[in-house]
């Protein structure tokens, strides 16, 4: 999908968060240079400055009074992020200066950019495919180095290339089918039934591999909810502090100190984790504790992983999960192992000490194994998101139906099913995407991206 650089309004937005030392404003569109020069003055003027070079000048208010010293840089089309003429202005941060400049740019003819509109224009102008555009948001939102590296590989086209390979192979197969249908008397060397079957089988195998990466993609992009649960006074809050490496939860020797849920973000073996400390499970002794226990049970039902914590102390309560929650992926943890260092926790139980840090590595190994549900020795080269997986799920049965029709020599029906598969695959990298889908995808971007 391509567009013309000059057929849309010039847009402007602040591209940095408020409060930093430097603020950056972006303009994109046919009038970007002229609008920028309405408030930025330098010697020589910006249109005579070399492209892609930061130039020092001043920001002038509508009365011509200088209000800030700022750098400006121009990116002529098509060698820019959006494929259009672009200008960036780098001014002092703090909010007021940047908002004043943005207001001046809007008064000079720019329109305020919508969330993700710069990247949307990059896609429309052929600067990147849709998987690369989505990777921009993944990089901005990344919560771990593993997620950041995954986003970088996708931005460089790792997923897009695999999708393009499948798409091109299937469109070639469809062209062969349609040539046999439309020109049966022509001397066209058709692909054999076995060749078409092999093409579809290889494509289905690649789609299966991509679908299998959905779990990794969802975990790396969105993280998991990990709930620390168990009876009172087994050290749930202490263990949360030990995992975080700092005192976040209040810890006392009194049972029932935690009366509400407490959330904090962490990374465990490269996995983004939302740690949730909860009230101890026991027979409630007052109304407040009742509410806390109800929240604990609700959190356990929503968790991707539960750490069920018991204690090595003789007075520790029952170690087993409540029967109605036993289906949740669970790591059983015996805390306070420093009190009985010579004992073993039994099969499937990780012994730790929140006080000394003993056993934390083994606990992290157990969490990692539970999250991935399989050996996970290295980072995935690609990992599809939910949108990609849903489209692959549509393509796969259509592809298999096409293969069955070819086997029965029902070429017209095979072509119909193959078109369905191609359309679904094309929506992943944007070759057949609809405008409303684009709006939904880019609406999750921040302003200035």
CATH architecture of the largest domain: 3-Layer(aba) Sandwich
Secondary-structure element series? EEHEEEEHEHHHHHHEHEEHEEEHHHH
Count up the domains. 3
- Count of helices? 14
Q: Could you tell me the radius of gyration in angstroms?
A: 29 Å
Amount of beta strand:
15-25%
- In the predicted model, the low-confidence regions spanning at least 5 consecutive residues are 1-6
Main pleated sheet: 7 strands, mixed
How would the global form be characterised? flat
CATH class categorisation of the largest domain: Alpha Beta
State the helicity in percent bands.
40-55%
Q: How many beta-strand elements?
A: 13
Report, as a whole number of angstroms, the end-to-end distance: 19 Å
The averaged pLDDT comes out at: 84
- Say what the CATH topology of the largest domain is: Rossmann fold
């Amino acid at each position: 999908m391509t567009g013309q650089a000059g057929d849309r309004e010039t847009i402007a937005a602040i591209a940095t968060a408020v409060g930093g030392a430097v603020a950056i404003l972006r303009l994109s569109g046919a009038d970007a240079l002229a609008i920028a020069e309405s408030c930025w003055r330098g010697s020589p003027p910006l249109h005579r400055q070399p492209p892609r070079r930061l130039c020092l000048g001043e920001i002038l208010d509508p009365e011509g009074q200088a209000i800030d010293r700022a750098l400006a840089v121009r990116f002529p089309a098509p060698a820019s992020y959006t494929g259009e003429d672009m200008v960036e202005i780098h001014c002092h941060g703090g909010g007021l200066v940047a908002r004043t400049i943005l207001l001046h740019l809007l008064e000079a003819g720019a329109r305020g950019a919508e969330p993700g509109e710069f990247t949307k224009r990059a896609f429309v102008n052929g600067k990147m495919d849709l998987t690369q555009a989505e990777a921009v948001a993944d990089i901005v939102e990344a919560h771990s180095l593993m997620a950041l590296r995954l986003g970088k590989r996708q931005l460089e086209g790792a997923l897009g290339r695999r999708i393009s390979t499948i798409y091109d192979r299937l469109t070639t197969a469809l062209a062969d089918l349609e040539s046999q249908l439309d020109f049966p008397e022509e001397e066209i060397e058709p692909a054999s039934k076995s060749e078409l079957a092999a093409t579809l089988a290889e494509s289905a195998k690649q789609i299966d591999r991509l679908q299998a990466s959905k779990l990794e993609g969802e975990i790396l992009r969105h993280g998991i909810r990990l709930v620390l649960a168990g009876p009172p006074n087994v050290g749930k809050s202490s263990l949360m502090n030990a995992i975080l490496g700092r005192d976040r939860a209040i810890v006392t020797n009194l049972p029932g100190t935690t009366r509400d849920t407490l959330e904090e973000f962490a990374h465990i073996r490269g996995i983004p984790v939302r740690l949730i400390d909860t009230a101890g499970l026991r027979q409630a002794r007052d109304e407040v504790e009742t509410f806390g226990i109800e929240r604990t049970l609700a959190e356990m039902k929503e968790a991707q992983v539960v750490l069920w914590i018991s204690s090595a102390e003789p007075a520790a309560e029952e170690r087993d999960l409540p029967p109605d929650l036993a289906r949740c992926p669970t790591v059983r943890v015996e805390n306070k192992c420093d009190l009985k260092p010579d004992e073993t926790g039994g099969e499937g139980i990780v012994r730790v000490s929140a006080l000394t840090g003993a056993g934390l590595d083994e606990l992290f190994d157990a969490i990692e194994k539970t999250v991935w549900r399989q050996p996970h020795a290295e980072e995935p080269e690609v990992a599809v998101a939910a949108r990609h997986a849903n489209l692959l799920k549509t393509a796969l049965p259509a592809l298999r139906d096409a293969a069955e029709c070819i086997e029965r020599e029902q070429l017209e029906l095979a072509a119909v099913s193959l078109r369905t598969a191609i359309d679904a695959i094309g929506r992943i990298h944007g070759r057949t995407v609809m405008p409303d889908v684009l709006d939904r995808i880019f609406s999750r971007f921040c302003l200035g991206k």
